[in-house]
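debug: dumping io for the single-chain case to check the tokenizer round-trip. Nothing else runs in this session.
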Amino acid sequence: MGKQCSNMQFLIWQIPLKIMERNNLQASDLNWLVPHQANKRIIDATAHVMDLPSEKVMINIQRYGNTTSATIPLALYDYESQLKKVIISFLLRLEEVLRGVLFI
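debug: decoded output
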């Protein structure tokens, strides 16, 4: 159980900050956090550690639940009217976070 906690803490506290640091990004550079919609507490904790206000976090877990691989496309669809033509989006999917981040 303790190992799971430390792994989750690493994912939430270290990975997003390392990715932002590696890409010379500050919270003010990001328009949106588009996380995998598995757990609202994890989404909130990730946004907090990245210093992003809730207005910059796409959340629709309350509407669909955890839809596995469709969570990010559904979030983008739900927030489509708020997206700009050219934005920097931090696409974070916890299962794939070690493979990197996609920016659009």
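debug: round-trip ok. Residues 91-96, 98-104 have pLDDT under 50 and may be disordered.
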